[in-house]
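User: Design a sequence. Structure:
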């Protein structure tokens, strides 16, 4: 059974850091690219970052480039999103999702409909 479980969210002050985890089961990280998305209240989800399956190539949305880092631990079957210099506008529910790498790279890594599996999300709140 495929599962993606996010953890690590919470309440932090502006400028602080958080590390989100996405623990996957039912497949290995060699099989699927893993993306992080976030959803602001009342808005659609937007892509944040992606790590590919074959070579661990990393992609970032412009809004987080230089502040967020995606990584993976294949032994633990877990993908991480290190978020530094957090801002109030980063407040959202963060989701991880798994998709076929080839399809995502051909058609668009931020297209949510191309992802096969999703986690339930973890809340990140940045507030003073």
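Assistant: Done.
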């Amino acid at each position: 059974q495929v599962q993606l479980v996010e953890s690590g969210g919470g309440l932090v002050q502006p400028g602080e850091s958080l590390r989100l985890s996405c623990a996957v089961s039912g497949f290995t990280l060699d099989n699927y690219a893993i993306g992080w998305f976030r959803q602001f209240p009342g808005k659609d989800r937007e892509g944040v970052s992606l790590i590919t399956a074959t070579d661990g190539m990393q992609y970032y949305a412009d809004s987080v480039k230089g502040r967020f880092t995606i990584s993976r631990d294949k032994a633990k079957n877990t993908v991480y999103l290190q978020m530094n210099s957090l801002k109030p506008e980063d407040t959202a529910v963060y989701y991880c999702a798994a998709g076929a790498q080839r399809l995502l790279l051909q058609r668009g890594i931020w297209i949510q409909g191309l992802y096969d599996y999703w986690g339930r999300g973890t809340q990140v709140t940045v507030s003073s």
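The helical segments are 101-107. The two ends are 40 Å apart (CA to CA).
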